[in-house]
């Protein structure tokens, strides 16, 4: 068991979607463990605020990026590499939209795949060559229980998150002997802005109260509670620790016991 309070000293971690929610919690866990962290995202003001909060714990940088754009990703990572080799990549940027399948148009379908799957692909391609050259690196993809199960009315989102898990497993096997691990954490409903959006949509479409809408979502969690961002962050951090080097190609469900 590692008792070092700063086991990630000297390492550089990049967290996409790091300005709030799960991404911010993961960034906090990593910087507290000693890593210098670069927060990436589209909202510069949100990134700056989060960096100010985290700077009390360690070194934090910010970099604007649109993970759906190959040019934006390439430029962002080129800038980030000025802070040093990237030891850890956490692909957390994501978005969820709901619609019945028959009303899911091509634009919505592409939005879900672009941000939730293609973004993971583009960012991973930016860091992997140097990781392989150094024979060292950790890639953690924030997927979802939607990548392990099917949920009604979010076919595009589920397809994207299933894709993230498939890519995680495939890449992990491809680089298994080359010093790089690739894993995914799969949160259930988590207390973030995305959850609030889901609740608001249920209220608008069904006329239920806030409590009734929350209860409808809680039914998927056997513990009857929502996951917290810090719980997801703890699992992500564990996958980055030295003693987790034998863990690769795994999808860790953080869902209160939801049956996969």
UniProtKB/TrEMBL annotation:
Ranges for domain Ketoreductase: 11-188
Domain of life where this protein originates: Bacteria
Nucleotide-binding listed as a keyword: no
GO molecular function: 3-hydroxybutyrate dehydrogenase activity
Keywords recorded for this protein, A-Z: Oxidoreductase
Keyword Oxidoreductase belongs to the record: yes
Enzyme Commission number(s) of this protein: 1.1.1.30
Annotated family: Belongs to the short-chain dehydrogenases/reductases (SDR) family.
Name of this protein: 3-hydroxybutyrate dehydrogenase
